[in-house]
Design goal:
The complex is a heterodimer of chains A (about 110) and B (about 120).
Chain A (H helix, E strand, L loop, with lengths): L4 E3 L2 E5 L4 E6 L5 E9 L6 E6 L5 E4 L2 E6 L4 E6 L8 E9 L2 E6 L3 E6 L1
Parallel strand pairs in A: 2-11
Antiparallel strand pairs in A: 1-3, 3-8, 4-5, 4-9, 6-7, 7-8, 9-10, 9-11
Chain B lengths: L4 E3 L2 E4 L5 E6 L6 E7 L6 E7 L2 E5 L6 E5 L5 E5 L8 E8 L10 E2 L3 E5 L1
Parallel strand pairs in B: 2-11
Antiparallel strand pairs in B: 1-3, 3-8, 4-5, 4-9, 5-6, 7-8, 9-10, 9-11
Classes of the chains: A mainly beta (about 110), B mainly beta (about 120).
Chain lengths: ~110, ~120
């Protein structure tokens, strides 16, 4: 059984502060790690996909890192804004199994 | 927006009934995957269709079935509905190429309530 875990489950952050959260995943036969941003009543939006150990991706104020040997990824948000409020989901895929295995998400609320 | 649409947005069914959920893939995509998100859980993989054939299935009973049409739209059918089938159902489309990462684009989901 593959278990992807995210922490914390929820987070309240003051506007302007930086924050980060974690995704851990089984590293055996790992292929890719995906991060999604999901606002209420909208479609999950792909943020990053990473495959190589040590990968770092950045989009504006949001960045992510990947450690495939120990099976974790961090998502960082610098200078949080109210529009960053959303649920952030990570999902892993494995060789020979293309389904996305999701964590339960981190619900981020930015306090103005 | 991703270009993936789902209908209906939400619906209410009674236990024992049957339901059909629909998904329209992003233009040019040949693969569709369906996921179930129960309350407090992450999305769980139901199955995937590639070029109208089932291409992988998660841990869901046979009363969950699907179809993919030549225009790559898709249906998820659930028979003999149970209370635990109440969830958000997401579809995701992608263009599968051999040896390349399969990036999936999600629709907004259909919220199913079974009473």
């Amino acid at each position: 059984i593959l278990n992807v875990e995210q922490s914390p489950q929820s987070l309240h952050v003051q506007e302007g502060d930086s924050t980060n959260f974690t995704c851990s995943f089984p590293s055996s036969n790992f292929y890719a790690l995906h991060w999604y941003r999901w606002e209420t009543a909208k479609s999950p939006e792909a943020l990053f996909v990473m495959t190589l150990n040590g990968d770092e991706k950045k989009k504006g104020r949001i960045s992510a890192t990947l450690n495939t040997k120990e099976g974790y990824s961090y998502l960082y948000i610098k200078g949080s804004q109210p529009e960053d409020s959303a649920t952030y989901l990570c999902a892993s895929t494995y060789f020979g199994n293309e389904k996305l295995t999701f964590g339960t998400g981190t619900r981020l609320t930015i306090i103005p | 927006e991703t270009g993936v649409t789902q209908s209906p947005t939400h619906l209410i069914k009674t236990r024992g009934q049957q339901v059909t959920l629909r998904c329209s893939s992003q233009s040019g995509h040949n693969t569709v995957s369906w996921y179930q998100q129960a309350l407090g859980q992450g999305p769980q993989f139901i199955f995937q269709y590639y070029r109208e054939e089932e291409n992988g299935r998660g841990n869901f009973p046979p009363r969950f079935s699907g179809l993919q049409f030549p225009n790559y739209s898709s249906e998820l059918n659930v028979n003999a509905l149970e209370l635990d089938d109440s969830a958000l159902y997401l579809c995701a489309s992608s263009f599968k190429r051999r040896g390349e990462l399969d990036e999936q684009y999600f629709g907004p989901g259909t919220r199913l309530t079974v009473t």
